[in-house]
Amino acid sequence: MKNFFLQVSGFRPTISELPVLIRGVGIAVLFGRLFYDSWIAVIFLLPLVIPWFIYKKKMEKMRRVRILGIQFRDAIASALTSLKAGYSIENAFREAGRDMELLYGKKSPICQELRRIYKGLGNNIPLEKLIGRLGKESGNADIEEFAEVFAVAKRSGGNMTDIIGRTIAVISRKMDVEKEIDVLISSKRLEAGIMNIVPFFIIFYISITSNGFFDPLYHNVVGVILMTICMLVYFAAYLLSQKIVNITI
């Protein structure tokens, strides 16, 4: 709860996030008009755009973290190849950066993070600390675990080639499981998305085809209470469906 209020107090949408914010305003208008047939209700519902925006921002961050994890796996795989060719571990990561630029482009998350690592190496910061900082700042558990193992191995003089190879195998197995889960629930995720918009189509369709059908539910206390309960049930069902179809391991 404390983190939520801190996020709300720091609510500062960027230009790239404006489409998400506009979509949230559109949803507030949709709820206000279909559930209450009132622009006043829209005004009261607009503050709900903030938690919705924060939630979508959190989901987008989780997606970016996952993409970074996949790209990091490919980066250390490239570094492993260079390491086997006789490069030092630092130079192996520099070579990995070139490969990642060819594979994902210079603006990809992994290339941006690798450039930060190269700057740190230029300032004589140990590689294990830079990777550890990347893991903590990104919030990716795989990178954090790799950084811890890498730091211990480097201090104790462990076999870097073997350690990186095993790390790649562990991360790859985890990603394979995630892909299998995505395939299994992809149809359910589509069904959940359809079911989330079905109530709006039902209300809109009945409003068009049976003009005045919902009039007893609008502009009176009992109707407002009933529609509010329906809206809360819808919100609960939406959050439950999102929790079911967004499985993390």
From TrEMBL:
Record keywords: Cell membrane, Membrane, Transmembrane, Transmembrane helix
Record-annotated Type II secretion system protein GspF domain positions: 80-206
Location within or outside the cell: Cell membrane
UniProt GO cellular component terms: plasma membrane
TM region(s), chain numbering: 38-55, 194-214, 220-240
Membrane topology category: Multi-pass membrane protein
Pfam families in UniProt: T2SSF (PF00482)
Highest taxon of the lineage: Bacteria
Protein's name in the database: Tight adherence protein B
Native source organism of the sequence: Butyrivibrio hungatei
Lineage: Bacteria, Bacillati, Bacillota, Clostridia, Lachnospirales
